[in-house]
Amino acid sequence: MVPANEPPMIKSGVEIENDKDREYYDSVTPLNPVPDASESSPYGDLTREEFYKNHQILHKESFMLNQQNMKICTQSWRPNSTLQLKGLVAMLHGYNSESSWLFELTAVAIAKAGFLVCAIDLQGHGYSDGLPGHIPNIEPIVCDCVQFFDSIKVDHPKLLRFIYGESLGGAIAILVCLKQKKRMEWLNFEWFNVWNFG
């Protein structure tokens, strides 16, 4: 219990009144960047650069040209340390979403756990070219994902590969795995369902 003379600990608007809750909060908080976020920014009061420095994450954002000569936005996150990476996690967002905000915070949490994380804004989503939300054919999007994820894999051939998809991203993740002939070790839909494709 919190001593009577010690006020309850408050973090991100959550009042922690007992040792068990405090212990749990302290165990998950180091990986969880969500408490930093605000309604107006996933980085809270910090700049993007300050946010990544605070969480000891190296972030890279760039564009690739796909087979249709469209600019596709890509991002990657990794721990800013010399420790060996545990694996490569490829992330795919859902329909009418993008690889920033909450999805970005999820990527940061995974990177803080020791993984190289990469994500792509699907055609017509986020900062990628294309009509907003327009997906007349899923095959070019699957090809974009394979092109980007394979480019990351080239620099890290020995890392275990995982794919994480939310909503439409989960469906695309299945198609990516089928196209790559099961070259991903794990497939994760939404939050908790993990399938072994090894």
Automatic annotation (TrEMBL):
What's one Pfam family the UniProt record gives for this protein?
Hydrolase_4
What SUPFAM superfamilies does the annotation carry?
alpha/beta-Hydrolases
Protein name, as recorded: Serine aminopeptidase S33 domain-containing protein
PANTHER family from the entry? Answer: PHOSPHOLIPASE-RELATED
Q: Which residues form the Serine aminopeptidase S33 domain?
A: 86-184
